[in-house]
Design brief:
Number of domains: 1
Strand content: 15-25%
Helix content: 25-40%
Length: 179
Amino acid sequence: MLKTFLTMMLLAATLPAQTASPSWRARLASAMPLLGHRNWILVVDSAYPQQVSPGVETIETNASQIDVVRIVLAAINRAPQVRPVVFLDAELPFVTDEDAPGVTTYRAEVKPLLQDYPLEQLPHEKIIADIDDAGKTFRVLVLKTNMTIPYTSVFIRLDCKYWSADQEKSLREKMAATK
């Protein structure tokens, strides 16, 4: 019995690190104070690839996509330092229920969750390339869900909550005027 237990513990120690489903919320909560503008949080479908860029951390949630999006947005909204800029795959509006049953329901469920945020739609490969590039310098937290509909991932780039793009532009103009 003890030998079996020790063997299991040794085997578990040699497996790649992966956060168990119940603790994904805890991992998100612990990451939020550390995340800032240019970091990303991705809520992805089950076929999303595990990326190898050094800053990318993938966590299996074993939860529904809609639930994870809702929880992530609530966590971002509570954070004093960041706000979300949301990206969706440009392919999503073209996926049909005939090809992917449930996609129309998904679009109807996710739309109200995202309506209050800046939203961009880009081709999937462009978003993946941007995230891969960001992961070389910045942290990317990937929360993998049990979603099995293609092009449904929600990509959230974090931006500064207390300093807007307009404020940054104004600052740069003031700086340029002094030269």
